[in-house]
Each structure stands twice: as C-alpha cells, then as structure tokens.
Design a protein that fits this description.
Elements: E1 5-8, H1 19-46, H2 49-75, H3 89-118, H4 125-152, H5 156-185, H6 190-217, H7 227-235, E2 240-252, E3 255-264, H8 272-287, E4 291-297
Parallel strand pairs: 3-4
Antiparallel strand pairs: 1-4, 2-3
Helix pairs in contact: 1-2, 1-4, 2-3, 2-5, 2-6, 3-5, 3-6, 4-5, 5-6
Transmembrane segments: 25-50, 56-75, 87-111, 123-150, 162-182, 188-210
Pfam family, one: Cation_efflux
GO molecular function: zinc ion transmembrane transporter activity
Length: 308
C-alpha cells in the first residue's frame, strides 16, 4: 500500500518587492501633505465647509499613505521562523484601516454639514475657488499616477489610496461647483449639502475597501474564483475519485493558496507525483493558482467519516 504523500509542487514567495507602488506612494504622500495644509488653512479663512471637509479628507489620505508605506515595507520582508507566511497581511490590515478611515471621515463631514445647515456661514468665494482649482489639478495628477501604478503592480493599498483621491477629486469638483452656485444664487446652504453628498460617495469607496480586506483577513475564497468550478475541474483529472479538506484563500491580494486531499480510483502502479503535477499544472493554467499543496490519501489507511 502507498503511504500518504504531501507535495507542494509550486513554490510561492511569501513577500512582495513592489518598487512601482513604493515610488507612487512617496510622490502621493509629498503632494498630498503640502496641499492638505494649504486647503485646511484656506478652508478656515474662506469659511467654506466643503473646503475644510476636503482638507480633512486629504489629511486622512496622508495618514492612509503612511500606513501604506509601512505595509509595503513589511510586505517586502522575507518569512521568518515565527512568521512563516511573511508580513504580507500587514498591507491588508493597512488597507482595512484606510477603508475605515474613509467611512469615519465621511460620517464626520456629514455631521458637520448638518450643523452648517442649521447655522449657515458666509463664504469667501475667491479664496475658496482658487484653492479648489489647485486641489483639482493635484488630485487629477495623483489619480493618474495611482492608476498607472496599478497597471504595473496589483496592490490593495494603492487601490484604497486611489479611492481616497477619487473622493478628493470629486470633492474638488464639488467645491468649485458649490462656490459658483453660492456666488450666483446666494444659497449658502448648498455648501454643506454638496459636502454631504460627496461624503456619501467617499463612504461607498471605504466600504468596498473594508469588505475586500475583511474577506482576505477571514481567508474567504477570492472574489474572482469559484470554489465549485475548481472542485469540478480537479475531479475531471484522470484517476481522481474524490477530494476533501478543500481550502482556498488569499494571503494577500494576488497571492492565492489552495490545499486539499485527494483520493484516487486506482492505486496500483500509479505514480503519485505525476498525478500531483497534472493537477498543479491544470490549476495554474486554468485558474492562475500557483501555490498548491496536495496530499494523496489511501482510504484504507486514512479513514474519514465525512468527506467534503
């Protein structure tokens, strides 16, 4: 009788070296820090809530980018005896905190908008529009920089930063529109109302980032993969009777792992390693899963009451 053989055919690196993402985050951090301070003081002196809310959102971007920089640094560190999977989960934790920051800030802006509706304030149109236009230009540049980075490297922190800057871009547009509407209609209430609407859009992006990062932290099946289809494909491989102990998860975005046990139809004269190679090659070619751990079992030795 054959003994159980546990075989990891494809070896995945449990770390990421993302030079493009790191460069992108440094550029974003520098531009965002400078403009956040400019916008904050401009919003205070102009009396525009839309401008102040956007500055707080930009400050949250600075904090989020710092988290992302720390995450990329740790993600590049190789596994240790204690952290055998490396530090890749740090970038997912950072993404979760970034998404949470988006939601919290959006709620804060909505709260402030309600207060402004109750107690309207005068706005300095010229100062408000000038800073808003500068902000719009900076946010357009940063959005393109982040989108270009994602074309080269897939990184959830860059995606969360992109959501931050898309929110900022919308906010800048909203501030400009608000400024002109307030100037030519005299309706000061438009400032907090538009701020609240933009905040809802920002909150939506934050919720999406939180959901995706939580799925990875909970080791859920990646959204782009279907566990049932993968099971069926494995069972279609020659001489596979059944599979169980099936686990499909992501360590970090783009790094999928799969492990399962295999029961064969016929054991006599079968080369276990060739079976494992066939399954591994199929999973890599059809689903892009490279980190696969397969254990072949003999039911006469390994008895399972319930097979999944």
């Amino acid at each position: 009788m054959k003994k159980n053989i546990e075989f990891n055919y494809h070896h995945a690196k449990h770390y990421k070296v993302q030079k493009q993402s790191k460069k992108t985050l440094w550029i974003s951090l520098l531009l965002t820090t400078v403009f956040a301070l400019l916008e904050l003081f401009g919003g205070i002196f102009s009396g525009s809530l839309a401008l102040v809310s956007d500055s707080f959102h930009m400050i949250s971007d600075v904090i989020a980018l710092i988290f992302s920089m720390i995450a990329i640094y740790y993600a590049s560190k190789k596994p240790t005896e204690k952290y055998t999977y490396g530090y890749l989960r740090v970038e997912i934790i950072a993404a979760f905190l970034n998404g949470l920051a988006l939601v919290v800030i959006a709620i804060g802006i909505i709260y402030e908008a309600i207060k402004r509706v109750i107690n309207p304030q005068e706005i300095n149109f010229t100062l408000m529009i000038t800073i808003a236009i500068i902000g719009l230009i900076i946010n357009i540049i940063l959005t393109f920089v982040l989108m270009n980075s994602l074309k080269h490297e897939d990184n959830l922190n860059i995606k969360s930063a992109l959501w931050h800057f898309l929110g900022d871009l919308l906010n800048s547009v909203g501030v400009i529109i608000t400024g002109f509407l307030v100037k030519y209609t005299g309706i000061v209430l438009l400032d907090p109302i538009i701020s609240a609407v933009i905040s809802i859009v920002i909150m939506t992006g934050g919720i999406k980032i939180i959901k995706k990062s939580l799925n990875i932290l909970m080791e859920a099946v990646p959204e782009e993969l279907n566990a049932d289809n993968i099971r069926k494909s494995i069972l279609e491989v020659e001489n596979i009777e059944n599979i169980h102990e099936f686990h499909l998860w992501s360590i970090s975005e783009g790094l999928t792992s799969l492990s399962f046990h295999v029961i064969l139809k016929e054991y006599k004269g079968v080369d276990d390693y060739s079976i494992i190679k066939k399954i591994s090659d199929m999973l890599k070619e059809k689903y892009g899963i490279e980190h696969v751990t397969i254990q072949i079992e003999n039911p006469e030795i390994n008895i399972h009451e319930d097979e999944i």
